[in-house]
Amino acid sequence: MIPFDDKFHEECGLFGIFGHGDSAPHTALGLHALQHRGQEAAGIVSYDGQQFHSHRTPGLVGETFDSADIMERLGGDAAIGHVRYSTTGQTALRNIQPLFAEFDFGGMAVAHNGNLTNAFSLRRELVNRGSIFQSTTDTEVLIHLIANSRDSTPYARPDSADPEVVLRVIKALRQIQGAYSLICLTNNVLLGARDPWGVRPLIIGEIDGAMILASETCALDIIGANFVRDVAPGEVVVIDKSGLKSLKPFLTVPSKFCIFEYVYFSRPDSVVEGSNVYEVRRRIGAELAREKPVNGADVVTPVPDSGTPAAIGFAAESGIPFELGIIRNHYVGRTFIEPADQIRHLGVRLKHNPNKASLSGKKVVLVDDSIVRGTTSVKIVEMVRNAGAAEVHMRIASPPTTHSCFYGVDTPDRDKLMAANMDIKEMQHHIGVDSLSFLSIDGLYRAMGEPSRNTKQPQYCDACFSGEYPIALTDHQDGNPPTQLSLLAEK
Ligand code: SF4
């Protein structure tokens, strides 16, 4: 048995299109717009009416789909694609999505964003029943569940192509727990699904009469496609030659969209669940300025790029001039999603350079979106001080990140989260700033247009700030992912 990764958090971007002659080129462009959701690997599977074609490699989208030959081989009028990131060294080709499998009903490609919180338990059961796994991703668990499902689902046959296949996918989805946005391509349908809580995003678009599924609206903008609507939490959409059918096969639960998508993860030009991400981040910055002002400051400067909209909001609200005090080199990747610690340290020096003219002799308000490990903050503050800043006051546009995410965003284990191991004074001292303040959780909800956080039934998933996990952590009872060692110990 191939073991799971010790830590298998994945952040991913999805794109799928059905009924367009340029399906693969559109998918490659869509993935290019979603590159911020995963930079380790990219893949596309297309279907030409006779056979499936697949191209998946490690690297950026532009490197993976870099020749006309490759795009020509990905023929057909339907395709799905995936950009991937994982935190461990398990970047082998076998883990790059979309995964593809031949079933008794034909081929199916599957691409998944999120994390299944009972994947270990399901995988163990499946292996005990004879399943043989090819990869170490939890997505393959779903493939085996589909293979083992038969149409005993107590749900009406969908009025679509491949109704048996759709029912088998629904039956498989009913067995999994966790956060998922999912797209599948069969011989006849493009299927999309969101978990009942709707933790991860998935939207519907349209171009030239062809339907699209994607993680964010920026993937529609790049190809000039129209936004249709979000896939609803717990909704399964089935797209075939006759159009789109909507199914609601799960029990309704309160929706728990990931609030961290607004804080950091989504692209600022995307419209997520009806809200423009850039505008939300500006409002977050304004809330932060009201809650945690810095009197007598000379400049507000962002940690680029993710702190920029909040810094603009902070500066506008406080009346303190906004300056680009740190210049980012855009030709290196985002440090938050590069795997190795050594690379993170190196990455900060590669990426940022202080703009001395904006910082020297100034009382600086430094705005960042969040503090996770804190390693980047330490380097950035050192850089700003070396550029001659008289005082550095750090303002963070989210509450302290005290808990790990088990639903698909790469926050590390708690022992590596700075706010889980230090109080604010200790963090201030460790980072080396004159003051450090975070946005309150109610302030974050106010920026989202809510009066405050509903403590009985929070409107979003905010578990990395609150520790209140809305979906059962079946395989994570101690708040940590199960390791290969703990699995062996159980046997
Ligand atoms: Fe998003 Fe945090 Fe919830 Fe994970 S734990 S889904 S990052 S809000």
Verbal overview:
The protein is an alpha+beta fold and 491 residues long. The protein folds into 2 domains: 10-256, Glutamine Phosphoribosylpyrophosphate, subunit 1, domain 1 (4-Layer Sandwich); 276-330 and 345-462, Rossmann fold (3-Layer(aba) Sandwich). The protein contains 18 helices and 21 strands. The protein has a 7-stranded antiparallel β-sheet with strand order 3-2-4-1-10-9-11. It has a 6-stranded antiparallel β-sheet with strand order 5-6-7-8-12-13, with helices on one face. The protein has a 4-stranded parallel β-sheet with strand order 16-19-20-21, sandwiched between helices. Strand 5 (99-103) and strand 6 form a beta hairpin. The radius of gyration is 23 Å and the shape is globular. The chain binds iron/sulfur cluster. The site of iron/sulfur cluster (SF4) has 11 residues, from helix 17.
Provide tags for this entry.
globular; seven-stranded antiparallel beta sheet; alpha+beta; 21 strands; 2 domains; 18 helices; about 500 residues; Glutamine Phosphoribosylpyrophosphate, subunit 1, domain 1; Rossmann fold; binds iron/sulfur cluster
Approximately what portion of the residues adopt beta-strand conformation?
15-25%
In CATH, the topology of the largest domain is named: Glutamine Phosphoribosylpyrophosphate, subunit 1, domain 1
Named at the architecture level, the CATH assignment of the largest domain is: 4-Layer Sandwich
Mean of the pLDDT scores? 90
Q: Which CATH class of the largest domain?
A: Alpha Beta
Q: What is the subunit organization of this protein?
A: single chain
The share of residues in helices is: 25-40%
Q: How would a crystallographer describe the biggest sheet?
A: 7 strands, antiparallel
Report the principal-axis shape.
Answer: globular
- The CATH homologous superfamily of the largest domain is termed Aminohydrolase, N-terminal nucleophile (Ntn) domain
Low-confidence regions? 1-10, 478-491
What is bound: which ligands? iron/sulfur cluster
What is the number of strand segments? Answer: 21
What is the topology, as strand order, of the major beta sheet? 3-2-4-1-10-9-11
Supply the number of structural domains.
2
Radius of gyration: 23 Å
Give the number of helices: 18
Sheet/helix structural class:
alpha+beta
Gap from first CA to last CA:
13 Å
